[in-house]
Each structure stands twice: as structure tokens, then as C-alpha cells.
Amino acid sequence: MQNYSLITSLVTGFGLALPFGYLAERFLRSPALVGYILAGVAVGIIPGLPPVNEAMIEQLAEIGVMLLMFGVGLHFSVRDLLNVRTAVVPWAAVQMMVTAILGACVAMGFWHWSFGAAVLFGLTISCASTVVVTKALELRRMTNEINGQVAIGWLVMEDLMSVVLLVCLPPFAQAVQGADVSLSAVAWKVATTLIWAAVFVVLMLVAGRKVMPRLLREVALTGSNELFTLSVLGCAIVIAYGAGAIFNVSFALGAFFAGMVMQESRYAHRAATDSLPLQDAFSVLFFVSVGMMLDWHVFLQHPIEITLVVLIIIICKMTFATTFVTIARWPLETAFTVGACNGQIGEFSYILAAQGIALHLVDSSMMSIIVAASIITIAFNPVLFEAAPKLMRIFTSRYAWARRAAMRPAPFSQLPENAPREILDGQMIVVGLPEDGAQAFFDSLLKAKRRTIVICGGSAPVDRLREAGIGVLFGSPSDPMVLVQAHVLSAGVLVIPSGTAAEAKDVVDAARKLNKTLPIVVLTKTIDDGVFFDQTDKNLKILCEPLVTSLTVAATAIEELFQREESEAEEEANRKTVREIINEEYMRTVAAVRTGGASDAAESESDKLQAAAVTVADEAMSEAKRQTPVQKTLREAARGWGRRAASVFFWRKRGSDHSGNAEPADEAKPETTEQTAQTPPKA
Description:
By secondary structure, this protein is mainly alpha-helical. The protein is about 70% helix and about 5% strand. The radius of gyration is 41 Å and the shape is elongated.
């Protein structure tokens, strides 16, 4: 049976994930990932299931984490990471430190754990799950919004800090256990880790941004879909592994940077589409593996500890993150979003706890508590996302500072103060960017020189657009505050060239609340997407992308067909009949004979004239067949045309033989010459 451990593991994992995920979505009104975790718990409870290789499931789950972070990187540019650095770089580290101190104090004060175990416990609850947050943001279509970008940047910073913690944990364990530890050696090891991580980041941002887009282009030119998909997955997995094996960076972080540099390619959308099915499949195995780590007996053995840990993670971590983002002068909505993202723990917590057990800092009971708290907080995390807007409304209704923070725009999500006033009246508002052909779209905007405001993510060429006089806003287009800042009340038209039908509908609804008569143009993916919109709205134009493409192809084909028919008609009009060719040849020959210089020309053209005469004879035969019985017979008509053709050759031959001895009297009779040139002589 061990030979089938992979197959049986997949059968059990996917077989249980499907019904539990459906039950979670259908009846529990929770995300499917909650059902996947319950499926993992059921693996150890339900008897008679095919055997599962836990180590193999964990490896497959690691692949899922890499692919998921790779997909996040494909929608995250370098500019996005730099835009959120003020909220991420210092405050994420501060939040982890404050949470770790609080956790250590609780462990030492209430449970009387040792110093080493308490510090390790504090570190395990200080970092959030990147996979869980990413899935939550994708479900709410917040990945490309400012709030989602700040949250992802926060998680990236926490992952970098967790890598440093993993490096520092062995010497910390030695010091706690009484062994002599050189502080200089520890500092050198930490510095080396940071240097290698920095080298990896610089290498990916400098060399990778040039190599990987070119690689995708060359593979795409082959025309092989299989090879393109293989190149995308190969780059994600190979770079992630190289980041861990060479640069001591986590697999997830390496995959994220791989996707971020591949985002520079114009094939990034295709890469994201091709890798999405595998991301979803392997991420399911990740949540199943989390559930498999749980021993349900821990709820009976340590109920108080689990409850206290859950409260610290949900309440304290969320409070700390929200407070620090607000101090960084970001909007209150962004602060609550980041707070909700920090209301759980995940994969790095398991890694830290497992290493602590290996270093004999804690026993396995701590791992059980961490896993139980992780499952509860992950399952409760969707509730935090739903509660965040309600909490924000409560705070804004009671506190003046909250109202000021709620009205505060993001540091880069506003029109510049020097924005021309003329673009704020009768302007075109563009929501998002086309997924394909964005460069051509920009070029058309710049060439038209229309008054335009673009609402998009941080990956847009902001500098180029603003230099051309186009206003750029960062934010959610369905947010009325963003539309107000874009001056939707005085806009001339609203264009939505990208996104799903649900996203476009949210934007249309928000715009209609502010401007009832604003002309809106929406480009949908399928014809069926039109049902999402109000069909009675006369100012709403729905364009289906496949239909527009088909009509464009048809129009181009018809235009090419018309051009071909016109060319053929012109050639047909210029084509001479057989009789016209014979007459032209005859008249040219006569003129040459009369001028005394056509002996050579007549000889050289005899073959051509003979062929033309044969054709004339064939036409005569066809014409004779259509004659009535009172007219000439077929034989007589053919004989007459044959005599005329023969007389032409005989006369031409005779003229060429005596062209040099032509009588002078002919030159004195122009009328006769002209008449001879028009009428072929008879034999």
C-alpha cells in the first residue's frame, strides 16, 4: 500500500475537501477554506479512509504555498511595494515585537512557562498567515486595491522578519540552555542572512526584470501552450527553491518575488491564468494539511490556554496593527483592513514551533495549542473582514479622531495639487486598465489628448500619464469617495475596460448614486455578463469583448475582400480582348512597314500573331454555332475567318520582303495609307 501513498493521499485529501468545502459555503456561510481545514481534521477521525502520507501532503502543500505567492506577485509590482513602504517597513516589525512581548508575558505570568518557551510562544503568535490573507483578499477582489497592497506588503515584511527569527532561534536556544554563545557570531550570522536576502531581492529586481519577461516572450513565440505553462511553473518553483537553498529565504518569499518580476512582461496575465488552476488545487492541500496537524483531544486538555491564545491573536494583534497603520497616517479603512489580516496565525508559526521542539525549548503540547488556535483564528478570520467596516462606522460615529482618519486620503491616492483644472470638467474617467494591450490603450489616450482621469492600481505608468496631463487616482473605483475625487459629477463619460462583471456592476452602482445621467461604457468578458446590469439604463452601453473582437475580424476580412475584388475588376477593365490585340498588332505592323523599319519586328512577332489568329478562328467557330440556318454554315464561316488570318500572314511576309523597295507613290497618298491601316487587306 505504501507504493500508492501519493495516490491514496490525493484521493483522501481531495475527496474530503470537496464535500466539506461545499458544506462550509452552502450551509455555514463561511469560505470554503474552513471546510478544507475540517476535512483535514476528519482525516484522523473517520475510520476506513485510504491511508494518507502526511509528509507527502505537507510537501504538496508547500508547492501550493509557492504557487499561491507566485500568483500574488504576478499582480504586485515593484512600484506597489515602494508605495506602501511607509506603512510596512517600520510598523510591521514593531507590531511583531509588541505581540511577542505580550505573548511571552502571558505565558510566564499565567502558565509559568520558562523564559525560552515563553519567548518562543510570543514569536509564534506574532506572525500572520500569508496564504490565508492572500486567499481572503482574492475572495474580496482586494488584491489590486490600496488596502490589499498595504496588507500584502505587511505580510512580506513579516515573512522577512520570520526568516531572521529562524536564524536567531538556534543560538537563542543555546544561550537559554546555558551554553556559551558569542554575540558577535550571532550578529554575523544575522547580518549574513540579511545580506543574502538583500542579494536575492536585488538580483530579482535588476536581473530578473530583464531576463524573465524576455524568456516568456521567446517561449510564447513558439506557439506551444504546454511549453508556456511549463515555463511559468518552472520559473516559479525553481526560483522559490533557489531562494531557499542558496539565499536562505523562504520558498513563499522567493515565489512572490519571482511573480513580481514576471509581472513586468506583457504575458503576465496569461501566466496568471495558466497557473491559477494549480494554485487552487495545491492551496486546498495546504488547508487540509493544517487540519491534519490537529489532535482534537487538545480542546479537552488545554481549553483555557487555547481560549486565551485566540483572544490575544484576534483582539490584541488586530488592535496593534490598526493602531500602527493609523499612526502612519493612512486612512482608517486601510488600518482596519490590515488589522483584520493580522487576526490569525499560520505557516510560519508552525515552523517556529517545530524548530522550538527540535531545539528542546518546548514540548509537543505547545504545538498542539498553536495548531488549535491557528485553526480557530483562520476559521474566524472571515468574520473579522465582515466586522471591520461595522467597527469603523462605530468609531467614526463616536470619535472625532476616527472621523478625521476616515477622511484622510492615502499618501499616493490623490490627484496632484498641480493637476490642470480643465481635466476636471467633462473628462473621461477610465476605471482600471485593459489586461491585454494596456500600452496601446495608453498610447491612444495620449494621442487623443482628451481630458482623462485613470483610476487604477499602482502598477500603472503614473509618471508618464501625469506628464501627459492625465490624472491618476489609486483606490477602489467602487468607493464613492474615490469617484468624488475623480469629479464624477462633472464627468463626460465613464469607461470600464477591464475587470469582472461583478466588479463593473459595483462601479456602475456607485457611479449611478452620484450621477444618474452619466454615460457609461462597459467591456464584458462574455455575452451572458450583460444580465448583471440594468437593461433599462439608456446611458449604459455594454460591449462584449468576444463580440467586439468578432465584429472587428469580420470588418477587416470584408475590407480585404472588397479591396481584392476592386483590384480584380481594375485588372479586368484593363485586360484587352483578342480582337483588340490583333488590331493593335496589325496596325503597328502596317505603320512599321510604311516607315520602312519593320522587317525585324514583323518576323519577331509572327508567332504571337499566329496564336492570336488561331484564337480568332476559335471564336468564329463558336459564333457560327449560334447562327441560324439562313446564315452561313459552320464550315463556310470557319473557312472565311481562316482566309482572313492567312491573308494577314501572307501580306505581312510579302511586306517584310519588299519593305525596302516601297514605291514612292505610296507616300503621296495618305488617305490610301490611312484606309489600309484601318482595314486588313483581303487575299
